[in-house]
Amino acid sequence: MSARGARCPTRRAGRRACANRCPARRWATRRRHPRRWRLADPRRGRYLYLARRGRAERAAAAVRPSRGDRHRRAVLREPRLGIHHRLTAAGRRPGAGVSPVESDVASRIAQRSLAKRRADYAGEVRRLLDAALELMRAGGTTSRPRVADIVAAAGLSNEAFYRHFPSKDALVAAILEDGSERLRGYVAHQMSKEPTPEGKVRRWVAGVLSQASGDVAATTRAVLWNAGGVTGPAPSGPPSVTGLLAVLLREPFAALGSADAAFDASLAAHATVGTLADHLWGRSVPAPSDVDRITAFCLRIVKT
Description:
Blueprint: H1 23-32, E1 37-41, E2 46-49, H2 55-62, H3 67-77, H4 80-89, H5 100-139, H6 147-154, H7 158-164, H8 168-191, H9 197-209, H10 214-227, H11 241-255, H12 261-282, H13 288-303
Antiparallel strand pairs: 1-2
Protein name: TetR family transcriptional regulator
Organism: Prauserella endophytica
Keywords: DNA-binding, Transcription, Transcription regulation
């Protein structure tokens, strides 16, 4: 059956077949007259059938997108262009002619948003550190926790983990740094209880060796065992625990007459931390006599 005689299944009684809606007539006419099909309405993206010759060109010219339509399409593809359009319509360039008051308001709003996000991120990091430390303490020196275990214990997602740490090694390095800062704060608090330089040195030695006794020893041993698989330093490059502890000895060593307080403090810190490591891996508890001997050694370093 020809295109003109094709029956439209959707045609109502008493009306001719619609060229735009009848599938049979549209397909037949398209095969016979392919040039009559044009992109008549590019804004809608549909092909319209035009029955009469010459009407395709007129319709295409009539619905040709204007400059405003093209700009609106560009804004949909790139939302930032909308800001540029509004500013150019007002007669100024983007970023030009902004008053200091507007700039201050924008800065204050941005600071409030950043402060809230900073607090949220700090809470996430603390939850990850605490969860990882608890899992390391539970596993001891027999098993290392996975990232999935740490995330599940912290109640966060993998996205939150990798937002703050590029790998598990970075998390372990952060735990080491956090533990070093806590130990430094504890030893400094113990040293503040003594008025004399000799008493401060003894408090320092006792505070460092106290990490090899009780539950603290098990936690420290587990963290150091997990840190054995770390392939690189922490991203921020924090100082080691030996360097942090050595800083605390500079002031009492200088008061005792040390010619080079920084060098002497570093030497005493390396010797004491090495003794602590021996007690940790040997699973032994330092005796009070060990504290006396190391204290006497540190005081002899100053006098020589």
